[in-house]
Specification:
This protein is mainly alpha-helical. The chain has a domain of 104 residues: 3-Layer(aba) Sandwich (Rossmann fold). The chain has five helices and three strands; from the N terminus they run ααβαβαβα. The chain has a three-stranded parallel β-sheet with strand order 1-2-3, with helices on both faces.
């Protein structure tokens, strides 16, 4: 998506197609989407990565505010953030690193980052999957122990 004040979307459409070709499910949001609509989409859809495209200094500032608003609303469920565009110039490095996980200066840089992005998102999923299974396993063991020392049936829990 393009942050408020950014009107170009060609690079976003190109990156959307690139992700689709890699097998990702994508949602193209366009430009200047209202924050409430964006938050609703992020809450109802399973979003792993937000891709922002910005060319001007104003759009990097609005990108920063946008991501901070998302983080304050979604807390630990905030998706990873990829920022692309000319604003990834080294003079903006500190600001960019404060709100993004990945940055690329051109669409060509996406192919360099895509495997890293996919690997990190997959590792996060596997960690959550394993954590959930471990929690389930721990709960099952505790129920077995409770059953051993009581005659109650905990299956309705």
């Amino acid at each position: 998506m393009a942050p408020p004040g950014e009107d170009h979307i060609i690079s976003l459409k190109m990156s959307t197609e690139y992700f689709k070709q890699r097998g990702w499910n994508t949602i193209f949001l366009g430009k200047s989407i209202p924050i409430n609509s964006l938050l609703e989409t992020l809450k109802t859809e399973k979003i792993d990565l937000i891709v922002l495209s910005a060319l001007t200094q104003n759009s990097i500032n609005s990108s920063s505010y946008l991501i901070e608003a998302i983080k304050s609303n979604l807390k630990d469920k905030t998706p990873k953030v990829l920022l692309g565009g000319y604003v990834t110039h080294p003079t903006n490095k500190k600001l960019i690193e404060s709100f993004t996980d990945y940055k690329i200066s051109s669409i060509n840089g996406l192919s360099d980052y895509i495997e890293k992005i996919e690997s990190q998102i997959l590792n996060k999923f596997l960690y959550l999957y394993n954590s959930n299974n471990m929690i389930k396993y721990t709960i099952e063991i505790k129920f077995k122990i409770l059953r051993r020392y009581t005659n109650e049936d905990f299956s309705s829990w």
